[in-house]
Structure to design on (144 residues):
């Protein structure tokens, strides 16, 4: 993950945009879900390391903006394909597909909860320091 962070730092804004957008082809790209989960792991790692907070926040915001629909729909049941009738579908196949769908939904949910915890743990010390500095600045402005 360190090499990914180094690579991300070396990119210009347009390169970061292209890299994040190319993680998935859209809401119907089910093959990209493992890659999106790996990307969430990357931002969790980056926030837990507490380095490049601004870069992590900016790239995470773009990631969520671009892929929010796909992440929200992970694990939701899709409309059945009209070409395949329900009678033709094997019950074991349906059960396996349902189990995989639930596993993906659980994995996405776990990553998002972990990401929230990492982001909160990183932000709170920054917020406390920011408030302290603002208070000190207000005090010094009153002295003059």
């Amino acid at each position: 993950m360190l090499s990914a962070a180094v690579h991300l730092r070396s990119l210009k804004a347009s390169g970061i945009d292209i890299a994040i957008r190319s993680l998935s082809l859209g809401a119907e790209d089910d093959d990209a879900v493992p890659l999106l989960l790996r990307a969430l792991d990357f931002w969790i790692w980056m926030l837990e390391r507490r380095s490049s907070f601004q870069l992590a926040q900016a790239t995470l915001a773009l990631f969520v903006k671009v892929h929010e629909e796909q992440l929200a729909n992970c694990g939701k049941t899709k409309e059945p394909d009209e070409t395949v009738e329900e009678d033709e579908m094997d019950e074991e196949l349906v059960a396996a597909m349902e189990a995989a769908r639930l596993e993906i939904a659980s994995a996405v949910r776990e990553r998002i909860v972990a990401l929230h915890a990492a982001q909160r743990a990183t932000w709170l010390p920054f917020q406390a320091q920011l408030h302290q500095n603002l208070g000190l600045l207000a005090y010094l402005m009153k002295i003059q």
